[in-house]
Amino acid sequence: MKNTVLVSGGAGFIGSHVSVELIEAGFDIVVADNFSNCDLTCFKGVKKITGRDDIPLEVMDFCDASATKALFAKYPIDAVIHFAAFKAVGESVQEPVMYYKNNLLSFLNVLEAAQDKGGCNVLFSSSATVYGEPDKVPVTEETPRKPAASPYGNTKKMCEDILQDCVKASNGAIKGILLRYFNPIGAHPSALIGELPRGVPNNLVPFITQTAVGKRECLNIFGNDYPTPDGTCLRDYIDIVDLAKAHVCAVKRMLDGKMAQPCEVFNIGTGRPLSVLELVNAFEKVNGVKLNYRFAPRREGDVTAIWADPAKANEQMGWKATRSIEETLKAAWAWECHLKTTYGNE
Ligand code: UDP
């Protein structure tokens, strides 16, 4: 019998790529989303890529406890991957109550529903933001977490703690994996799914592709006076398909009883630091486009340098990032061009 995985927030950027990889790995999935920050584009893309027209889609909000319970009653859920959350750092500073309410309540409802049905395997999508400005790079899973720089970051940290506590209290009924993502970028090689930011993108790569396609006039590179080789920040950019495959490895690890502890943490990154300027140069080179950019003041809250030590995920989960930055940036550009062909430069 196939195992069923619930993908909360499954119609979004990361959720849609994970959905494809889960289906391709032989899982049944249920996608649930309230479409607060996406439309049907990526869900339709998932169906097209996988050739599956029968993927269950539940339009619902995980902040609704009874709807969440009903969902767990309706499907034989073996594992849940929880993506459904708000993710804009700046907005979270402006609207902390909205962020805490949405991101914590939705996760608490998932955990309560999982508890009520006697247990579940829970995978939480966390972030390298929990490490703050690390004292030492690369960061391992043992690197101490720092106080969060934003309510958004704090919700990630708090959800990590909540899951750890629930696992501890559950006597083995709830198992947890926390995946700490570094900087997910790119798009599926089919160019049928990718990132669809609403309004002006906050993240670097969507801003780059939108500038290259003519939607934005100029990319601001935030700060060129950091203590790094070229003065711009260093990050660990991880291909979205590689990142999605890490979820398949994690789900299998939980279902196959391979976990070393009932709640585990893994860094999901490449281990390769890249500066903003190196990324911009690579984008121009691999896609043969000229990018209009200028240096601008530092952005508040940015850390100078962070990248992963992915050894634990490599060794214990058998997962490794395989796609080159060139492939990734090609895919990001192909997706932006696909959007232009489909929707024009709105
Ligand atoms: N960045 C930039 N211009 C932009 C967006 C981002 O120079 O328009 C820089 C940002 O300062 C950081 C890096 O790109 O050094 C990655 O930022 P992003 O927001 O994509 O991810 P973060 O690392 O903040 O989670």
CATH superfamily of the largest domain: NAD(P)-binding Rossmann-like Domain
Bound molecules: uridine-5'-diphosphate
**Architecture of the largest domain, CATH level 2?**
3-Layer(aba) Sandwich
Q: What fraction of residues sit in β-strands?
A: 15-25%
- As laid out across the biggest beta sheet, the strand order is 3-2-1-4-5-6-11
Mean pLDDT: 97
Helix content: 40-55%
So how many helices? 11
**CATH classification, class level of the largest domain:** Alpha Beta
Structure description:
This protein is α/β, with parallel strands linked by helices and 346 residues long. The chain has two domains: 4-185 and 237-268, NAD(P)-binding Rossmann-like Domain (Rossmann fold, 3-Layer(aba) Sandwich); 204-235 and 271-343, UDP-galactose 4-epimerase, domain 1 (Alpha-Beta Complex). Helices cover 41% and strands 17% of the residues. A seven-stranded parallel beta sheet has the order 3-2-1-4-5-6-11, sandwiched between helices. The protein has a two-stranded parallel ribbon with strand order 7-10. Strands 8-13 form a two-stranded parallel ribbon. Helix 1 crosses helix 8 (240-255) and helix 3 (65-74) runs parallel beside helix 5. It is globular, with a radius of gyration of 19 Å. The protein starts with a strand and ends with a helix. 49% of the residues are buried. The mean pLDDT is 97. The site of uridine-5'-diphosphate has 14 residues, from helix 7 and strand 8.
